[in-house]
Design brief:
The structure holds two protein chains of two kinds.
Chain A: H1 3-8, H2 11-26, H3 46-60, H4 81-96
Chain B: E1 4-12, H1 19-28, E2 34-35, E3 48-49, H2 63-66, H3 71-87, H4 93-97, E4 99-104, H5 110-122, H6 132-136, H7 140-149, E5 155-158, H8 164-178, E6 183-190, H9 195-203, E7 227-235, H10 236-241, E8 248-257, H11 268-281, E9 290-292, H12 299-313, E10 322-323, H13 326-329, H14 336-350, E11 352-353, E12 376-377, E13 382-389, E14 393-400
Parallel strand pairs in B: 4-5, 4-6, 9-10, 9-13
Antiparallel strand pairs in B: 1-7, 1-8, 2-3, 6-7, 8-14, 11-12, 13-14
Classes of the chains: A mainly alpha, B alpha/beta.
């Protein structure tokens, strides 16, 4: 996806795509996710988390700073679905700027 | 039961190009981790590793041989020549029939794979060098050693990721005990510091950003290295018959499978492997004088390994020196426990405990004496070395001092 297309993405569209990626990992329907949902509560383990991050990076052409050994200081807020969406929105905006 | 001893040790690793140099680096607490120099390094997010520097293949092999030798085979051959020379073995036709090779590997000829995938996919070439297969196959180094020294007995390659060397050396031990051979070359080398080899590890998000700090609270993961070590294992009877100098006794081996998670370590599997190795060696936990830890520097491994050591050694776990030399030579993946066995030999032979370097912050969850930053003298008669692989496959060796 080129940068022009990225810019046309509304934030809603980003949120929907992030939720679709997370829902696929959690083996649930995206409509069952809320911004407050926490990945661990969805049954996403450390490997699932790394796959989610990879999926998001590939979908948006961004690089997410994440090291599985230091999850409490990730440089990227993974505490909830809503937090992840707003971090992705920031990275996409920075990429487009 | 037949007793098995080590009569030769050779190595080529980031800390040194032979046993003496490696022991000096262990004693000095040298860290060989530095900037990576592989091709396309600018496209890697992991930019550090422990490379072997100054190794010139042409100094060791004729050009015609090099075209058949991936870097992992070159390292294994260089190490094996040193080990055989130190052992003083003269391998004639009769001994050759009673001698074999068991090496472990995780990646095999990773550099050859990387170079040739680049050629056909990246550069669009439609032809590869005729020796790609004999270079890359996992048993290439094993077979090269067998050919070099005329070893015609039991020979094969073991692949259990980061526990490959310990599993291989355990197999060599059991073959010798069983009577299938009198002499075995065993150990391992690994050469995965190429673009694809590092890129694959990058994907897991477990690599350290700064350096390898096993057991330190601020650890941020693994650092890859390259290299290996090869040993001559021999029955005591055979070694005595030729008046060989004995470096140590290989007293026990234990292995187990977690049957849990493909990457997350478990406490129970390592505990069972350590207990099995100590029982096999007929050693009480309180007699262990040094533990060379798996100690990868990941959050998960170090915490679990500390718990496992406490379960196996009880109160002794807080007293016995436990170090991770991966802080110095990096994680040599399939070759790592072979180089770590050199640290066990140093402890048994010289009474020097190699340190865990790069230690800056005590982790309250790791109640171990990790020998931070500086080598220490200690009277060690039994050393245990751990290897806990991805896939939950665990292998532990116990060595005894030979007096």
């Amino acid at each position: 996806m080129g940068p022009e297309v990225m810019q046309r993405n509304t934030n809603t569209a980003i949120g929907e795509r992030v939720m679709a990626i997370i829902a696929e990992q959690a083996l649930i329907d995206a409509s069952d996710l809320t911004p407050e949902s926490r990945l661990a509560d969805l049954g996403i383990d450390s490997l699932g988390l790394v796959e989610c991050i990879f999926g998001i990076e590939e979908a948006f052409g961004i690089t997410i700073p994440f090291n599985a050994n230091t999850p409490d200081t990730p440089g990227f807020d993974l505490s909830s679905v809503g937090a992840i969406i707003s971090e992705v929105e920031n990275l996409v905006a920075r990429q487009a700027a | 039961m037949t007793r098995i001893v080590i009569t030769g040790a050779g190595t080529l690793n980031p800390l040194g190009a032979n046993l003496a140099d490696t022991w000096s680096a262990f004693s000095a607490g040298t860290c060989a981790i530095g900037p990576l120099t592989c091709r396309d390094v600018e496209r890697l997010s992991v930019q550090i590793g422990a490379e072997i520097r100054g190794f010139v293949p042409e100094d060791h092999f004729p050009r015609t041989a090099i075209s058949l030798l991936d870097r992992f085979s070159q390292i294994a051959l260089v190490a094996a020549r040193q080990a055989v020379a130190q052992s003083g073995l003269e391998i004639d036709e009769a001994l050759g029939l009673r001698a074999g090779v068991v090496l472990g590997t995780a990646g095999g000829g990773n550099t050859t794979v990387d170079d040739n995938y680049r050629a056909v996919y990246g550069e669009g070439k439609n032809r590869v060098h005729p020796f790609v297969v004999p270079r890359l196959m996992h048993n290439a180094a094993t077979s090269q050693l067998a050919m070099e020294f005329g070893l015609k007995g039991p020979s094969f390659t073991v692949s259990t990721a980061c526990a490959s060397s310990n599993h291989a050396m355990g197999q060599a031990l059991q073959l010798l005990r069983s009577g299938a051979a009198d002499v075995m070359l065993t150990g391992r080398s690994e050469a995965m510091l190429c673009f694809g080899g590092i890129k694959a590890w990058e994907g897991l998000r477990v690599m350290a950003r700064d350096t390898c700090r096993p057991f330190s609270r601020n650890r941020s993961g693994m650092v890859q290295g390259e290299g290996g070590a090869v040993f001559v294992f021999e029955t005591l009877e055979h070694a005595h018959a030729r008046n060989a100098t004995i470096l140590a006794e290989v007293a026990g081996f234990g292995m187990s499978s977690d049957a849990g998670d493909i990457v997350m370590p478990d406490v129970d599997g390592p505990v069972r492997a350590m207990r099995a190795a100590l029982a096999d060696a007929k050693v009480a936990p309180e007699d262990v004088g040094y533990v060379n830890a798996h100690g990868t520097g990941t959050a998960a491994n170090d915490r679990i390994e500390a718990q496992a050591l406490h379960l196996v050694l009880g109160a002794h776990a807080g007293r016995v020196p436990v170090s991770s030399t991966k802080s110095m030579h990096g994680h040599l993946i399939g070759g790592t426990s072979a180089v770590e066995l050199l640290a066990c030999l140093l402890a048994l032979q010289d009474g020097t405990i190699a340190p865990t370097v790069n230690h800056t912050e005590t982790d309250p969850e790791i109640a171990l004496d990790i020998v931070p930053n500086t080598a220490r003298k200690a009277d060690v008669s039994v050393a245990m070395t751990n290897a806990f692989a991805f896939g939950g496959l665990n292998a532990v060796l116990v060595l005894k001092r030979w007096i």
